[in-house]
Amino acid sequence: VQLQASGGGLVQAGGSLRLSCAATGRTFSYDAMGWFRQAPGKERTLVATITWRAGITVYADSVKGRFAISRDNAKNTVYLQMNSLKPEDTAVYYCAARRSVVSVYDVWGQGTQVTVSS
Question: What are phi and psi of 65, to 5 degrees?
Answer without folding.
Answer: 85, -10
